[in-house]
Structures are given as C-alpha cells and as structure tokens.
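Purpose: get a first structural picture of the assembly so the mutagenesis plan has something to point at.
Setup: two entries, given in the order below. No constraints added.
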Amino acid sequence: GAGVSQTPSNKVTEKGKYVELRCDPISGHTALYWYRQSLGQGPEFLIYFQGTGAADDSGLPNDRFFAVRPEGSVSTLKIQRTERGDSAVYLCASSYRPDNEQFFGPGTRLTVL
Amino acid sequence: RKEVEQDPGPFNVPEGATVAFNCTYSNSASQSFFWYRQDCRKEPKLLMSVYSSGNEDGRFTAQLNRASQYISLLIRDSKLSDSATYLCVVTDWGSSNTGKLIFGQGTTLQVKP
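Result (structure tokens, whole complex):
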C-alpha cells in the first residue's frame, strides 16, 4: 500500500516568505507527527496530531510555526516569515495509534536563502 | 545535555567485522526504546525495538540497561549494505501519551570492502 507522502520534496524560498509543507499519511492512521532534521542531527519533534486536534505542539520553536489537520488526514505545516535557520528537512510520520510503529515520509528539504 | 546521546562516529569497519554502538538517555521515565536506520538523504526506518531482555534479529542484537540508562546495538558480520546512520530513539510518553520519538544525533557506519 501507499506510504506517507510529502510535497514538495524540495522547497527553496527567500528569507521572510511564507511556506506550506504538506503531509499525506497512511490511510487509517490516526496519529500524525511532524519532525525537523537539521544537517548532522537526529530528527526533532515538532507537533503531534491525534485525529484533527494538535495533542502536543510543545516542539514548535516559536509562533511562526503552525500546523493543521482539518479532516484528520492530510496535514499542512505552515511557516511564516521564514528565516535562514529554518532550513532543514521536515519529516512527517504517521501511525495507526500513538503506541504503534511510526512510518516516515521522504521529507521536504526546505532551504531559506 | 541532550536527552539521547550517541557518538556520531564515523565508524569505519571492514566487511565481516563486528561493530557495537551505544547510547545513553537522560529521562528515567522513558518507556520504549528503538534503533532506527537512516540512509543518506532518506527517511528514518525502524530497525528494531529494544527490550531489557535483549533481542536479536539476524545479525543485529539490541540491549537495554534501564539501571544505567544505556542502549546498545551490535552488528555481526558487517555487510557493505549496513553502511548508514543508526539513530538511537526513546519514546517520551509524558502526560499526554503522545508517543513522540526523541532521537539521538545518530552514529554513522561505513563498511569498507
């Protein structure tokens, strides 16, 4: 079956611009996670959705970052006023339940010039 | 101090060698433990879960020492295809049972012919 998909695969933007990153989880998976991976580091947790609601957004670095999952399936991570330090690979993962294995998408590589 | 600490390496070993990776975690309340594998410019994939009793999957053996808050991965008879970054991961359930993953920095393994 289809895995987790993410679009775009690459995004180059200029400092100060707004970007949206999309995640399409595995069908039937209620838990959805966003992580950010900087070069040479492991992924860092950003936000967790159970269904439509953000159950844990403790990893969002500041209020420029926001994510939604309006119908409990596709999720969008939104970054306002991008900064060069936001450059990273943004990974999405989904699982059937929070205590099940998480399956990762291929990531979106964001570059802020 | 990072919640999960690993030696980033790289570990350069010849084919057929046995290699061991270790990591330590700081949160004694962590409940689930994993090793993930990440190939260059790819998403992380679950390699194996880690239990106190130890578990083995073919050439791979993982061990957890809760008292020392220490996790290990042993790879026997290394293959060229084992070359990758190995991420030590714990689950932080916290108060909301999110299942979010806390990753170490990763240890890079390069197996040489």
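The radius of gyration of chain A is 13 Å.
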